[in-house]
Amino acid sequence: MSSITEPGPTLLDGKETIDRIDVHRNGIADPRRPTPTCRGVTKPRPGGIITVAVGLCRLIVRIRLSCKYTGSGMLLDILSTKLFCMEGHAMALHRYVSLQQGVSLFDSHGFREELVKKPPVHEAGSQAQVNLAGQSTGTAPVPVRRPGYCSLVLLLGLLSGCGDETDLARIGREALVASGAKHLEELSVTAPATSAQAPPESSIAPINGGPRAHLEGAFGPMFVWPVMPIHMVLLPDRRVLAYGTDTAGRQGAGFHYTVWDPKLGGGPEAFLTLPNVTGTDIFCSAQSLLPDGRVVLMGGDENPGTPEDFGNADVNVFNPRTNVLSKAGVMAYQRWYPSLVVMPNGEQVVMGGRINIVRDGPIVYERNVASTPEVYTPGIGWRSLTGATTDAAYGSTAESFFYPRAWLAPAGDIFILGHDGLMFRLDPTAQGTLTPLAAIAPAASERYPGVMFAPGKIISMRKLRQAVVVDINGSEPVVQSIASAALDRQWGNATVLADGQVWLNGGSTTANVLNDAHYVSELWNPTSGLWTPTARATQARLYHSASILLPDASVLTGGGGAYGPVSQLNGEVWFPPYLFRRDGSGRFAPRPGIATAPTKALVGGELTLTLPSGVQARRLTLVRTGSVTHSFNHDQRFMELPFTQTGVQLRATLPANVNALPPGHYMVFIFNGNGVPSKARMLRITAPPPS
């Protein structure tokens, strides 16, 4: 059996902390220095340059994948990073000009990156189980390097062309780590200062939401993305990891991934776009945020040079401390479109996904699917759940292999809601047991969203605008029909808000068709059971779009395409009604604050917050960070906590059931008497040690 391994802690040992890189950006003008744009590029260049950049980039990445971690490999890393930047900036500039979005993507910006606080370090000559390019899951000696060599690497990176010096500082830091530098206190790269300030967070917000903002919310301006965000994960450091296409919006995530920092706005300086050097096309994989703060990605597309829509068996891990995506293991089965559930004990259960198909053009003759789930146990490895093999729950029946709708249930097993309405419970212990359930929901398909909006309660959209609530708190699920949504939203998205309401956006009546795309969104209130219309987006969000709740209580929505009628390399942020004054002015309401909050807490433990003087909390909510793709956010869950407030101290007791409050990262919100939420404090919840 293969095991997921990486330098330092094993995948889910719970010991790794998120003392991540602190990034400071500097917009102070310095007329003596040139702007840090691609050298000589001030306007769109002919397509031939883009083609050459793309070709060189891909050639170098393929060469890099065949290299061991040597000096030549390091230089290839730098060159591939720079070429990716060139390709991305050029493509983005062409898109930006065609959309006539005002300022140029090459408006100058400067920044400084400082690497501080316990960088990951290996002793020179020690054994590392994964190199930084993700080329080996076995043990290998870490090369011994002198700091002088690393300085040369960093200098060559600076001279290599274009793009974010965040990439360069990262590469320099990795070189120093590989050299065995034991006491790296600070390494900084300062780009030329410029006359343009980096866009503030308000650049993604509307200047005024309009007279109905307190009823419908409002969208901020559309902003360009370097890749199509088909997959989104909210990270513990408040950034968003996204991937899905190349920088031209073409299918395939074997070449790029990006990390967006919302506090830096919607300009190019808010994105850190990096080359994927794992050798895995992570397009249409499963992804989930682990309790230790890393992101695990399983499966994806088997891409031998052109997308095949076959599954691969690769496992990769993204570390937000270093922004590095690394190869970490192999599953027994290839999986394209799988689902992933992380259990409270750290085990990771993956199910569904397609292995391959046999076809002649559009005609499919045979389809092989992964109808046996697998479990990864940290420190032990993989086992197949041969006792739970089935086509009904996550195999060929009714496309059930396609991102099975699966959630951790309060009883500690996994609940599966089939696209055809059938329901199952999966016990992942030993060789696995699958139990069919008597309850049935109306038929849907893989194109409809569902999300857990309260402990053990799921709202699921079904065909013909139907919606149901499935309560899985008991031994048998209870299905309750609720009011129908206003529109039938195939490939729409459902997102739980900071107050527990569910926002439904995007999609179309006919799957992935532009002429009946839905721009108006709607909001479901679990208390009243009613739907209300909300603001109108400027962009269609069809197949391969995604939406995710952000720590400021707004919702990012973006993507769509690859394939589809329009390629959406852009995003918008929707600001819900609870963020606006109720007087119809369209202005944002004053928000309550949280002065101090813990960063960690135990399941069943006490949560203590300090509020600013004069702030009286009316509600306290927890929202688990989301992980979304293909109209399914399996990680998100919501709960409201009873609390007491004495002066500025607010105290609450967390639930003691690890299945209702699974270990992981949560956003903590308080609401004032006007129903306005604070910005979230991020809280890592861990399970108490076994007695």
Shape: globular
Q: Report how far apart the termini are.
A: 30 Å
DSSP strand tally? 46
Overall pLDDT confidence = 78
Low-confidence stretches: 1-47, 60-200
Q: Could you say what the CATH topology of the largest domain is called?
A: Methylamine Dehydrogenase, Chain H
The CATH superfamily of the largest domain is Galactose oxidase/kelch, beta-propeller
CA radius of gyration is 24 Å
List the domain count as a whole number.
Answer: 3
Tell me about the largest β-sheet.
6 strands, antiparallel
**What is the top-level CATH class of the largest domain?**
Mainly Beta
Strand content: 25-35%
Number of helices: 5
Per CATH, the architecture of the largest domain is 7 Propeller
Class derived from helix and strand content: mainly beta
Q: Walk across the major sheet and give the strand order.
A: 11-10-9-8-40-41
Approximately how much helix is present in the residues?
A: 10-25%
Walk me through the structure.
With 691 residues, the chain is mainly beta. The strands form 12 sheets. It has a 6-stranded antiparallel beta sheet with strand order 11-10-9-8-40-41. Helix 3 packs antiparallel against helix 4 (165-178). It is globular, with a radius of gyration of 24 Å. Residues 1-47 and 60-200 have low confidence and may be disordered.
